[in-house]
């Protein structure tokens, strides 16, 4: 069982002609997603995990929070959209509305002085 794809809080379409229109159509809300504290002031809310390991999540960072150590992107890239607040990647600030692509093997130190909410997608797990 995949913990996010098969989770009771993830809703499914009924296939062709039903809600969602196609088999595999899944939806959830951020409020329904379980909360996992990664570091003090940094929480992950898993939204979806594909059979191939791809995954989507929301990351919530409180004001003054900082990732512990270096966040290395393996096995594949990381795609980030700043939903609200200001995200700092260890080098520069990225305000709400910013999209970031971090290629496989790249790294950063996620942090936020004012807090932020991020949508994060890992196309290769």
Structural class: mainly beta
Number of helices: 0
- Poorly predicted residue ranges: none
Mean pLDDT: 88
Largest sheet: 7 strands, antiparallel
First-last Cα distance: 16 Å
- Which band does the percent of strand residues land in? 35-45%
* Radius of gyration, CA atoms, in whole angstroms: 15 Å
Estimate the helix proportion, in percent.
Answer: under 10%
Per the principal axes of the C-alpha atoms, what is the gross shape? Answer: globular
Q: Order of SSEs, N→C? A: EEEEEEEEEEEEE
Number of beta-strand segments: 13
Write up what this structure looks like:
By secondary structure, the protein is mainly beta. It is about 0% helix and about 45% strand. It is built from no helices and 13 strands. The protein has strands spanning about 10, 25, 35-40, 40-50, 55-60, 65, 70, 80-90, 95, 100, 105-110, 110, 115-120. The chain is globular, with a radius of gyration of 15 Å. It starts with 10 loop residues before the first strand and ends with a strand.
Question: What topology does this entry show?
Answer:
Layout: E1 11-12, E2 26-27, E3 36-39, E4 42-49, E5 55-61, E6 65-66, E7 71-72, E8 78-88, E9 93-95, E10 99-102, E11 107-108, E12 111-112, E13 116-122
Antiparallel strand pairs: 1-2, 3-4, 4-5, 5-13, 6-12, 7-11, 8-9, 8-10, 8-13
């Amino acid at each position: 069982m995949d913990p996010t794809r098969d989770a009771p809080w993830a809703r499914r379409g009924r296939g062709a002609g039903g809600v969602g229109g196609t088999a595999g159509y899944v939806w959830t809300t951020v409020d329904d997603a379980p909360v996992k504290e990664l570091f003090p002031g940094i929480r992950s809310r898993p939204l979806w995990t594909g059979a191939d390991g791809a995954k989507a999540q929301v990351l919530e960072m409180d004001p003054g929070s900082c990732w512990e150590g270096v966040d290395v992107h393996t096995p594949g890239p990381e795609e980030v959209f700043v939903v609200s607040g200001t995200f700092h990647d260890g080098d520069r600030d990225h305000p709400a509305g910013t999209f970031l692509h971090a290629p496989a093997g790249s790294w950063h130190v996620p942090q936020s002085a004012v807090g932020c909410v991020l949508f994060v997608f890992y196309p290769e797990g």
